[in-house]
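To the wet lab folks,

You asked to see what we're planning to order before we commit. Fair enough. Below is the target structure as tokens, and below that is the sequence we designed to fit it. If anything looks off to you, flag it before the synthesis order goes out.
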């Protein structure tokens, strides 16, 4: 979760070669992260079939005869997360040494992730819960965040996005943070990754697919380009990176999600609808980069941003348990069950942020930053 992604959204010191924006908290970016997380939650609760059908007692199509079609677009919240992540990681890595960058990323991701793995494993092990937990060995492997490449059963359904995030962090760290971030280096990184990802798509080499992630690269790269726009809105190269990334990104989104020819599809998304949601992600981050949403500076947005990552981690699997308890156990209507489940997951996210992230994140960051 951010992993949906995740990270601080505080402006870094200005670079010498251009005039950078004044240091400020980009609270609108916090709010956008929560919007993306709620999109994904809507998809998991009412926009797809699968395990959530057991929680509702029937297909979400029956629970939300009209809304299920709109909820099915919520999966694109992941792509919005990736654009945000590209922006935030470039911002947080600018002017930071490699050790500090690693300490920041690890301390931001791991405490809530570890707590979520333990919590979901424990809840699914309860005899009254309909869902099966993974084996103890697989649960331990999940703590490394490397379960997907190792072929181990996943505790958290959303952790595949964290595996994409980790690979992006590694590429950015090696190509930009390690030699030292600069406008030229970031532009070369974006151009090189875009070309390499296109070649990977043509080469059909599994190893290159794993490393260069052609399906997700345009969204991370687009976010990086938008941070360059944030630093200098007149940067033609930055706008070029953003434009090319959007064009390629919408292609992959449509190719992966447009299912009009599948008669068994849960919902039939339109290609235009997919493109519009992808465009929303790019345009929303662009509006923040250009300062158009600086008026959205409410303090509660910072709280919303802090809840996004733990909410993203726990909402799917534990949401099934809450939905079943409220809808089947207590007989609450679908709409009330949906709203209360989201509220319960936000409350749980607040507890994880208050009692896990706040005490452990600075300690882990400090320990990693001081380690030789």
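Sequence we intend to order:
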């Amino acid at each position: 979760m951010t992993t949906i992604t995740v990270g601080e959204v505080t402006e870094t010191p200005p670079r010498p070669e251009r005039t950078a924006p004044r240091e400020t908290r980009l609270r609108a970016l916090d709010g956008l992260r929560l919007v993306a997380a709620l999109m994904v939650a809507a998809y998991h609760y009412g926009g797809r079939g699968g395990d959530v059908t057991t929680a509702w007692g029937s297909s979400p199509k029956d629970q939300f005869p009209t809304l299920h079609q709109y909820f099915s677009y919520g999966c694109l919240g992941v792509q919005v997360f990736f654009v945000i992540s590209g922006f935030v990681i470039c911002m947080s890595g600018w002017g930071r040494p490699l050790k500090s960058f690693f300490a920041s990323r690890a301390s931001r991701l791991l405490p809530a992730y570890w707590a979520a793995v333990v919590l979901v494993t424990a809840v699914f092990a309860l005899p009254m819960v309909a869902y099966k937990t993974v084996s103890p060995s697989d649960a331990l492997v999940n703590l490394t965040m490397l379960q997907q490449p190792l072929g181990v059963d996943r505790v958290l359904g959303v952790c595949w996005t964290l595996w994409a995030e980790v690979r992006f962090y590694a590429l950015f760290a090696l190509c930009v943070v390690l030699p030292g971030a600069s406008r030229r280096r970031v532009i070369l990184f974006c151009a090189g990754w875009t070309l390499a990802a296109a070649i990977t798509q043509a080469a059909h080499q599994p190893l290159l697919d794993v490393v260069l992630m052609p399906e997700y690269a345009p969204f991370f790269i687009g976010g990086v380009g938008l941070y360059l726009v944030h630093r200098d809105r007149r940067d033609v190269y930055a706008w070029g990176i953003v434009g090319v990334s959007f064009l390629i990104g919408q292609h992959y989104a449509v190719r992966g999600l447009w299912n009009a020819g599948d008669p068994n599809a849960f919902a039939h998304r339109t290609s235009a609808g997919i493109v519009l949601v992808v465009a929303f992600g790019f345009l929303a981050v662009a509006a923040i980069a250009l300062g158009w949403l600086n008026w959205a500076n409410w303090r509660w947005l910072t709280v919303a941003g802090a809840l996004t990552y733990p909410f993203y981690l726990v909402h799917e699997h534990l949401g099934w348990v809450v939905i079943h308890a409220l809808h089947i156990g207590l007989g609450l209507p679908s709409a009330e069950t949906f709203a209360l489940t989201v509220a319960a997951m936000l409350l749980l996210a607040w507890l994880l942020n208050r009692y896990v992230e706040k005490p452990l994140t600075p300690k882990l960051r400090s320990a990693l930053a001081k380690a030789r």
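Structural context that might help your review: The mean pLDDT is 92. Residues 334-370 form the longest helix (37 residues).

Thanks,
Computational group
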